């Protein structure tokens, strides 16, 4: 239990925290400007993806938008269900799509799983966001979210910009792209805890007294279930 304060002491403590929150937000704004100032790199490979309406080029993933947020959804070809934590993140995507489109941004998910599995799972979860299969190309490996058994055994795969550490065959991430005169450029990618701001539920839990309440669990997301399994 924390201290129990009177009104004046609570207000003083809250104002002290507010100053720190404002400093953090200022730092976040500065970091966002630096993120937007990163150099672009051209995507050289002609990736072709499988979508519900047929094959699609990389440029085709953008639709009418010039920018693309692409979530690397963990779905191994051998799995019968999509990753539980990726599903937790994806629960918020449909509602964001119209607002992103109004700012010239498309959103889609890409996984190595076969398209039929992806669409069956999407139907089960009640989602409608665009989801594409990269099962016939090297996209996931090239962008550091899929790893071969040899890489996992040797521990030399590069995830989140560093070599080593624990790796699975599929790892989560988010990449940002921009299309200029038909040419696709990679502008940013983030992985691991860098994905936290995309999860609205976690942001809400951070505002309540018990927070995420994960400290005594065997692992941090041990409580999590798919939304149709609670």
Which labels suit this protein?
230 residues, alpha+beta, Glutaredoxin, two-stranded antiparallel sheet, 7 helices, 32% helix, 20% strand
Write a structural description:
22% of the residues are buried. The chain has a single domain, classed as Glutaredoxin, CATH 3.40.30. Helix content is 32%, strand content 20%. The model has no long low-confidence stretch (mean pLDDT 97). The protein has 230 residues and is α+β, with helices and mostly antiparallel strands. It has a six-stranded mixed β-sheet. A two-stranded antiparallel sheet has the order 2-3. Strands 7-8 form a two-stranded antiparallel ribbon.
What is the count of DSSP helices, taking H or I runs of 4+ residues? 7
Order of neighbouring strands in the sheet with most strands: 1-10-9-4-5-6
User: Which fold name fills CATH's third level, the topology?
Assistant: Glutaredoxin
CATH architecture: 3-Layer(aba) Sandwich
Secondary structure: number of strands: 10
Note the run of SSEs as H and E.
Answer: HEEEEHHEHEHHEEEEH
What percent of the residues sit in helical stretches (DSSP H or I)?
25-40%
> At the first level of CATH, what is the class?
Alpha Beta
Distance between the termini: 29 Å
CATH superfamily name?
A: Glutaredoxin
Report on the biggest sheet: 6 strands, mixed
Our Rg estimate from Cα atoms comes to 20 Å
Q: Classify the beta-strand content into a percent band.
A: 15-25%
Structural class: alpha+beta
The coarse silhouette is globular
The residue-averaged pLDDT reads 97
Low-confidence stretches: none
């Amino acid at each position: 239990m924390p201290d129990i304060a009177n009104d004046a002491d609570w207000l003083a403590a809250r104002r002290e925290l507010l100053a720190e929150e404002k400093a953090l937000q200022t730092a976040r704004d500065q970091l966002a400007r630096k993120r937007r100032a990163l150099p672009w790199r051209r995507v050289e490979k002609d990736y072709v993806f499988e979508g519900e309406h047929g094959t699609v080029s990389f440029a085709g993933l953008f639709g009418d938008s010039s920018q693309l947020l692409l979530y690397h959804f963990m779905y191994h070809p051998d799995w019968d269900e999509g990753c539980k934590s990726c599903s937790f993140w994806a629960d918020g995507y449909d509602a964001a799509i119209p607002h992103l489109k109004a700012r010239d941004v498309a959103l889609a998910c890409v996984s190595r799983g076969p398209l039929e599995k992806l669409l069956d799972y999407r139907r089960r979860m009640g989602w409608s966001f665009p989801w594409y299969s990269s099962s016939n190309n090297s996209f996931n490996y090239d962008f550091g979210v899929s790893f071969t058994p040899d890489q996992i055994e040797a521990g030399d795969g590069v995830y989140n910009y560093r070599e080593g550490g624990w790796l699975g065959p599929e790892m989560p991430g988010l990449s940002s792209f921009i299309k200029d005169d038909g040419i696709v450029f990679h502008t940013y990618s983030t992985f691991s805890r860098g994905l936290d701001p995309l999860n609205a539920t976690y942001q809400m839990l951070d505002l309540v007294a018990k927070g995420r309440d994960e400290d005594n669990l065997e692992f941090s997301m041990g409580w999590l279930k798919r939304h149709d399994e609670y």
